[in-house]
């Protein structure tokens, strides 16, 4: 099986959902910010994807250059204080638009065929599969 699932997920988010375009359109109320809004929100999103438990842990990862390969060479990443300031003043409507676009794109791409049914097959199954005549599938709740 192919390794490095995180890099594959990031590529998928960029290529299919064009997440960078949405993040680059985000604005906040700060005056003369040192770091742009997109970088701060991207780091929070990456922290969420990696299940980082606190901003202190995220700050440590930023200081250890663990996100350096995800940004262009020479990019200065914001520290947690700048990220907190950005999140205080961010325009929520931009985040809502990104969320709506991702949901619309997922529906258009038939990611959630017939509601929340996914991982379906007519040939393969497991003990946890739900069955509908000859079709086996897994079901879940998606937010």
Q: Output mean pLDDT.
A: 85
Question: Percent helix among the residues?
Answer: 40-55%
Question: How would you spell out the order of helices and strands?
Answer: HHHHHHEEE
Q: What structural class do helix, strand and pairing data support?
A: mainly alpha
Percent of residues in beta strands: 5-15%
* Head-to-tail CA distance between termini: 28 Å
Low-confidence stretches: none
Provide the spatial order of strands within the biggest beta sheet: 1-3-2
How would you sum up the global shape?
Answer: elongated
Secondary structure blueprint with pairings:
Layout: H1 5-17, H2 19-24, H3 37-49, H4 55-63, H5 80-89, H6 92-108, E1 117-121, E2 130-132, E3 135-139
Antiparallel strand pairs: 1-3, 2-3
Helix pairs in contact: 3-5
Summarize, please.
The chain is mainly α and 143 residues long.
Write up this protein:
With 143 residues, this protein is mostly helical. The chain folds into 2 domains: 107 residues, no CATH class; 32 residues, no CATH class. Helix content is 48%, strand content 9%. The protein is built from 6 helices and 3 strands, in the order ααααααβββ. The chain has a 3-stranded antiparallel sheet with strand order 1-3-2, with no helix packed on it. A hairpin with a 2-residue loop joins strand 2 and strand 3. Helix 3 packs across helix 5. The longest helix is centred in the last third of the chain and has 17 residues. The mean pLDDT is 85.
